[in-house]
Specification:
165 residues; alpha/beta; Maf protein; 6 helices; 5 strands
């Protein structure tokens, strides 16, 4: 059963856009725990454009799997645009993909602080030439925040791919 019809639709659009450009995707997910990768691999034929997904939930996984410097995490926190940037670039460096996305945030219900409240999610998108980041604040329960984050990540990736022309 689908978590979100919009998430499914975005994943299909990503597949078409990547296939048309002969590009491969890698993902680095933290708070979404592989939700984006699951939506993508629900699509028959996605192995033609999805290279791999990293679920780097812990800080150690971010460092050991995709090379996010531990000092960067200590200095800025795992939920930061700096770490999202490093995650997106690390996913590319540790794969054969040409584009990537990253997601790191606080899905709740606990774990939030005044500075980084529940619902704060940082994103990264990279195409080996440029890496873009953004921070969003979502409302809802844990499942709703995770779904909104996955949808936002795919919308941003679609924009990056389409603007790459």
């Amino acid at each position: 059963m689908s978590v979100s019809r919009l998430l499914d639709q975005l994943a299909v659009q990503i597949g078409v856009a990547l296939s048309e450009r002969s590009l491969m995707l890698a993902t680095a997910e933290s708070c979404t725990g592989g939700l984006v990768s699951a939506a993508i691999t629900d699509i028959s034929g996605s192995s033609g454009w999805f290279e791999r997904g990293f679920v780097t939930y812990s800080n150690e996984a971010k460092s050991t799997m995709i090379g996010v410097p531990a000092k960067l995490i200590r200095d800025h926190g795992a939920v930061s645009e700096e770490v999202a940037h490093a995650m997106a670039e690390g996913a590319l460096l540790n794969s054969r993909a040409q584009v990537s996305l990253s997601i790191t945030g606080v899905a709740g219900p606990g774990g939030g602080t005044a500075e980084k409240p529940v619902g704060m999610v940082c994103f990264g998108w990279s195409n080996r030439i440029t890496t873009l980041t953004s921070t969003q604040r979502f409302r809802g329960d844990r499942a709703q925040i995770r779904r909104q984050a996955a949808e936002h990540a795919l919308r941003g990736l679609l924009e990056l791919i389409r603007n790459e022309a």
